[in-house]
Amino acid sequence: MGIINSFITLDKEDKYLIIKTLILGYRIRFMTWIYSFPKLQEKINKMGDKKGPELGVYRIIWAVQATSPYILRSTCLTKAFTALVPLSLNDCSSTLRIGVKKESDFEVHAWLEMDGVVVMGESEREYAYLTDL
């Protein structure tokens, strides 16, 4: 089933969630290009200050996972921040973590945890934990 057919079969609320998540993902991706990391963090924290519509954690994660392949050069940080905003709006406590892996190449990775469980991103076991955001 193609992307258009998949989208058409969604109910009204899921279509709305997908569109909002796609817009948010592009907005965050654009912000990662133009802002320094501290300024990006400040802007994203402000985005999560308001109260949002009631959404379940798994619906938010589903929407981010479904839309991220369609965001130009989406990174693990883009995905984590895109999930972090609606989770914050729904009073879901989550932690954005950053770690590194050094095998043949140096690699940095971001993931999102809730109550010690990874909800967005690869397993943190592969990465040496650096900091929480």
Q: In words, what does this structure look like?
A:
The protein is an alpha+beta fold and 133 residues long. It has one domain. It is built from five helices and four strands; from the N terminus they run αααααββββ. The protein has helices spanning 3-9, 12-34, 37-47, 57-67, 76-89; strands at 95-102, 106-114, 117-120, 128-132. It has a four-stranded antiparallel sheet, with helices on one face. Helix 2 crosses helix 4 (57-67) and helix 2 packs across helix 5.
Overall structural domain count:
1
Order of helices and strands: HHHHHEEEE
What's the total number of strands?
4
Largest sheet: 4 strands, antiparallel
Helix segment tally: 5
* Largest sheet strand order: 3-2-1-4
Q: Percent of residues in helical segments?
A: 40-55%
Low-confidence stretches: none
Radius of gyration, Cα only, in angstroms?
15 Å
Structural class: alpha+beta
Shape: globular
Strand content: 15-25%
- The mean pLDDT is 86
The separation of the N and C termini measures 38 Å
Protein topology:
Layout: H1 3-9, H2 12-34, H3 37-47, H4 57-67, H5 76-89, E1 95-102, E2 106-114, E3 117-120, E4 128-132
Antiparallel strand pairs: 1-2, 1-4, 2-3
List keywords for this structure.
133 residues; alpha+beta; 4-stranded antiparallel sheet; globular
Task: Please provide a brief summary of the model.
By secondary structure, the protein is α+β, with helices and mostly antiparallel strands.
